[in-house]
């Protein structure tokens, strides 16, 4: 470490790293980079090694890593660091895609010189709600199941018809952090910022679609789903996705209690076994009277009912 003559003050450390003194103190408080020593007067002093560590933290912050992730990366071997950087790249690409979608919708809204007619705003709306169609369900993911492959082709048809008919598509996606209650029941899955949390490319969102992130089974809890539905003036929801008896059922039943007309895309919804899927469908249809429709043509039927 050298003697204290080789050390610099926190003010100099801030200038050398581009960080604020407040940020450096915060990194000290959470154990990321304590000072190398203290002066006789009690002031923080930093070695060249500590300066380099602070510069590393600043570098990872610019790459949009969270502080808990940075704590694990600072002393990680290159193969681990490379893997985490790949996952972070995928996460950033997903974020860019979502912001481009939002930008496209905003530009479209602002390009019109006139307000939409009142009848268009007030008319009943149908929306597709697609739940947990994420990479961790695919082969190699944290919770892989081949049955997910059976519903992807019908879902592609459903989403294509939704876009043709101007029906909103809302993706509700698991997005977990360490400590989430659901992780006490399941393996770590759909962890924030990972490839496994991204939407399966075969059914990925298109411009104008919506993405809502959840950390519990029920897609209404701790999310902005309700505000999205309010904005869209939606009254009928067609649910699809993964797992029928868990996240799909809990979110659909919650929608029922909130006054929505609920339907299920029968060939666009599935679970880890046929028995579990059948149980979920029976629960929703017998207890709540939810109609079930094939993906192909479901929206036209629902739109006719709302007309």
Describe this structure in words.
This protein is an alpha/beta fold. It has two domains: 7-73, Multidrug-efflux Transporter Regulator, Chain: A, Domain 2 (Orthogonal Bundle); 122-306, Isochorismatase-like (Rossmann fold), CATH 3.40.50.850. It has eleven helices and nine strands. Residues 118-122 have low confidence and may be disordered.
Strand-pairing-aware structural class? alpha/beta
- Shape call: elongated
Strand percentage, roughly? 15-25%
Number of domains: 2
Helix share of residues?
A: 40-55%
Under CATH, the homologous superfamily of the largest domain reads: Isochorismatase-like
Which regions are unreliable across 5 or more consecutive residues at pLDDT < 50? 118-122
Distance separating the two termini:
76 Å
Quaternary organisation: single chain
Largest beta-sheet characterization: 6 strands, parallel
Question: What strand line-up does the widest sheet have?
Answer: 6-5-4-7-8-9
Could you give the count of β-strands?
9
């Amino acid at each position: 470490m050298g003697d204290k003559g080789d050390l610099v003050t926190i003010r100099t450390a801030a200038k050398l790293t581009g960080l604020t003194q407040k940020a450096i103190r915060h990194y000290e408080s959470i154990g990321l980079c304590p000072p190398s020593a203290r002066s006789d007067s009690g002031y923080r002093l930093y070695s060249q090694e500590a300066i380099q560590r602070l510069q590393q933290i600043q570098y990872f912050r610019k790459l949009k890593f969270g502080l808990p992730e940075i704590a694990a990366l600072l002393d990680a071997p290159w193969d681990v660091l490379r893997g985490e950087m790949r996952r972070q790249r995928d996460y950033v690409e997903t974020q860019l895609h979502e912001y481009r979608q939002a930008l496209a919708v905003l530009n479209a809204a602002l390009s019109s010189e006139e307000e939409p007619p009142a009848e268009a705003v007030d008319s009943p709306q149908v929306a597709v709600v697609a739940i947990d169609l994420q990479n961790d369900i695919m082969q190699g993911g944290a919770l892989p199941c081949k049955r997910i492959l059976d519903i992807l082709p019908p879902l592609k048809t459903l989403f294509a018809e939704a876009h043709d008919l101007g029906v909103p598509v809302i993706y509700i996606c698991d997005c977990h952090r360490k400590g989430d209650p659901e992780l006490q029941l399941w393996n770590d899955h759909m962890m924030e910022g990972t490839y496994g949390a991204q939407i399966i490319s075969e059914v990925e969102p298109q411009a104008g679609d919506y993405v809502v992130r959840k950390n519990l089974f029920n897609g209404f809890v701790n999310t902005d789903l309700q505000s999205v539905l309010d904005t869209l003036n939606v009254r009928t929801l067609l649910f699809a996705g993964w797992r029928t008896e868990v996240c799909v059922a809990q979110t659909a039943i919650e929608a029922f209690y909130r006054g929505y007309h609920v339907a299920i895309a029968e060939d666009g919804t599935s679970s880890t076994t046929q028995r579990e899927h059948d149980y979920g469908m029976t629960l929703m249809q017998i207890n709540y009277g939810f109609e079930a429709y094939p993906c192909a043509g479901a929206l036209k039927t629902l739109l006719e009912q709302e007309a």
